[in-house]
Amino acid sequence: MSGGANARSRVFEALQCACSQDPSVLKVGEQQLKAWEKEPGFYTALSFVIGERGLDPSVRWMAITYIKNGVERYWRPGAPNGITEEEKAVVRTTLLQCIEEPVQQVSSQLAVLVARIARLDCPENWSELIPLLTKGVQSSNSLLQKCSLGTMKHVVKSLATRRLMPQRKAFFEITQSLFVYLAKLWTSYLQESLAGLGKEGFELALAPLELSRTCLKIVRQMMVYGFPKFHGVLEALQFLHQVLDRVPVFLELRSQLSQEHATANSLEKNITLMMKTLQEVQSHHPIGYVSFLTPTLQLVYTTIVEPRDEGQLYERFIIQAMNLLKQIIKCEDYNLPTSLQLSESVPPPQVMDAQQAKLAFFKASTCQTILQRLVCHYMPLSQQELQNWEDDAEEFAQEKTGEVHQYSLRVCVETMYVCLLHEYQQTLTPTVLTLIRNVQAVDASAEFDSLRLKEAVYKAAGLGAFQLYDDIDFDSWYQRQLLAELQVNESRYKIVRHRVVWLIGNWATVKLSPSLLTSIYFNLLAVLRPQEDLVIRLTAADSLRLVIDDFEFSAEEFSPYLADCVQLLVQLLCTVSQPDTKLRVLTVLSILMERMESHIQPHIPTLLQCLPSLWETSTQENSSLLRIGVLNTLTNIVRGLGPLSIQLHEFVLPVVHLATDVNTPEHVYLMEEGLDL
């Protein structure tokens, strides 16, 4: 493609077609642009289209998208059909002239494009980028300042991800040149926003709050990745002190506004970013964070453990505060190395300071207060959770695992509790035992809040099973208390019964006399029956899985219960509707078939009531995990039946064919299990 106005006109027309709502016109435009993407001059023409502000913003946005795609494929040195250095220089120069962009959608995309090129070229081949953005940030032109700051945010984030040492050194130099100015700019925007918050309406604070948040995003990247030794940089330490000091101020300001207020939402975003800054600096520079341990721990304690004003708290902040507290407790850099503990060597002074800070804060009374707050305030089921139980039992009963603690308050509270109990087991075990004793007398006639507390305490007892192993006589507790509670049919009491069923599963694999297993089998099957609440039935299936999958499990002892168990699990499988829940129940059946393989022949007709329809359903819903679950269950059945499995061939052989047919897309997920079958 030759350069000049003619090339720009042709590219513009193709971009217009690519933005058309008419599929046939759109296809023509996309084909033409695809044909040009390797042509010299194509990206120059695109960059000129971006700079023409009089054109349709959607066309300019599309031009940015095509340059982004070209950067990914053809910008790197040595790339096949790569863009020439001369054309790259023209594109870079043109993009810098477009930074001041009034259309938000175009400005955002343009910032991302500049950052992608910067990751490859800055500062070696694009030395003017950072100075020009800095000049724009310092400008009195509000639009140029906002656009330059937004672009710098993306550029700094992109440069921070580079890991080669020369690239890291370049980022260190950029940080050194910009950090102090950006830190002062953040402070200036905050002061402006606080002044606006002091006036009627609060709307004056919105713009500086947004700019301060953008500024903090840049500074956060620099604090985490821009200093080779964070603890030796006075300006960074001073800035982090400011962040810590601002969190309670913004929490108080937010509590003065209704949740729907736009300024309240902006304040929340700023608080979230401040807490994220504290978390990331502590995670990446734990030694440099030592001097902030005491104020951080005090901040967390005074806001979520003993808050002066409950109205200041909201879920996202509580999650972040708990995760920060957990990070500090679990941080290995604050522990004395084993080699030092076993010798007379002097540990690093920062480690000793961290030890002293944690010892001074985590006194017995403080740990007990935190644990009681977790169990008695945060763990009880909320009204929203109780409503979710009634509205969607399957969703309520879903197990949440993985990184959910970063987003789910309940999972965050539970992981925080386990972490605290593990770290301070001797101090906190008596507190947990006292809580358990205090709720034993709560029965179905008690206030509902008392039932919610009892459920929470039982949850704490189950989560801490490994830490409480030597201090709770679960056999006695089960026989004297829990067994009777399973028999209570009062509807209000179902939250406690549900937790008792869960508790049995948690403790059965930790500490349970073999003599009680028959009672456990009988009572878990009793709450699996169709007349029971669905959440309780699903929890009973989970507990049964844990009991069956235990290494002390005896197939002979369980054989009298096998028929009922298979029947009840099949009924439950036919009752639930969500693929994840079906897979959950199917997993229990699969494990049961594996552990009872020599006893399953009489129960094949019952199993065949559901497996063919389940396979068909999984195919219709395109649920690969569910199909894998069916394959695993069939494998365990065939293994148990041996030569008698020929009776299943009418169903099994087509399943094997589908799972192992390389001409179908499903084989990618199903091949391994299909070959096992």
TrEMBL record:
Keyword Transport: yes
Coiled-coil residues: none
UniProt xrefs under Gene3D superfamilies: Leucine-rich Repeat Variant (1.25.10.10)
A GO BP entry: protein import into nucleus
GO molecular function terms attached to this record: small GTPase binding
Family: Belongs to the importin beta family.
Protein's name according to its UniProt entry: Importin-11
UniProt lineage: Eukaryota, Metazoa, Porifera, Demospongiae, Heteroscleromorpha
